[in-house]
Write a structure and sequence with these properties.
The chain is α+β, with helices and mostly antiparallel strands and about 120 residues long. The chain has three helices and four strands. The radius of gyration is 16 Å and the shape is globular.
Length: about 120
Amino acid sequence: MISGTLEECGEMREVKPTWQGAVFVCTHEREPESCKAWCGRERGTDLREWLKARRKAEGLKGRILVAKSSCLGVCSKHGVTVAIMPSGSEPSKRQMVVFGPGDDRERLWARIRNALVGE
C-alpha cells in the first residue's frame, strides 16, 4: 500500500485493491421540499453499518469493501440503492438493487456474498 499524498509520492501510481469486490450504499439526501425521490442519509447509513458489521462477523473485512456513495442514478421512494461491484468484472456481473425497509437484510447479504466471494 502506498501512503502519503500524491505530492509526496511525486507521481500517480497504480495500486491493486486488496478486496474482491465493492458494495456502494447510497446515502444521498435531497432538500426536504424536493419532489424527487432520494435514498436518505439515515436509511443508507444504517444499512451500510449493518453490512460492515456482517462482513466483519464473517471475517470478510479486507475482501469486501462496503462504502457509502452519493447518488447512484437510481432514485426510489421505496428504499436505498445498493451497487454490488465485483473487482475487475465485466458490466454484466455488476448488480444494482433497491433495498426497501421491509426487505430481508440476510437475503441481501447472501446476494452480495455470492456475487463477490462466491461462497
